[in-house]
Amino acid sequence: MFDKHALTLELTFKAIRSSGAGGQHVNKVSSKVELTFDINESLVFDDGQKERLLNKLKTKFTNEGTLVMQCDETRSQHKNKELVTKRFFELLEKGLFIPKKRIPTKIPRSVVKKRLKNKRNLSDKKANRQKPDIE
């Protein structure tokens, strides 16, 4: 689908201070990781793939075509970097996925005959409930 190694070279990571658990330690360490990816500058994707990604993931990209993702789940900067990178690749795979077209099947003749027979039986049953016409 796409070369993950080449794409990794196009990513920009920035470590920033994270909020949340950690006490005094959180004020000293930059464990939150911010991933930035500019799709317009990417050499990995062709124009069709870029168009597909921008259309399917338009809520994730900025107006300039930049994707920004953050992760601060763990206290480790390395684990956060792995997590945000993993999520990034999953997002791209989801965006590039092309669903198979559904081919409508023809209704078998036996099923049509069975349905019409049931309709006929129900119609006859209801007709037998009516009083006969006396002339």
Descriptive account of the structure:
With 135 residues, the protein is of the alpha+beta class. It contains four helices and three strands, in the order αββαβαα. The N and C termini lie far apart (80 Å).
Which class best fits the helix and strand makeup? alpha+beta
Cα(first) to Cα(last) distance is: 80 Å
H/E order of the elements? HEEHEHH
Strand content: 5-15%
Tags for this model:
135 residues
Compose a concise summary of this entry.
This protein has helices at residues 4-9, 47-56, 77-96, 109-129; strands at residues 12-16, 32-38, 66-71. The protein is an alpha+beta fold and 135 residues long.
Topology:
Elements: H1 4-9, E1 12-16, E2 32-38, H2 47-56, E3 66-71, H3 77-96, H4 109-129
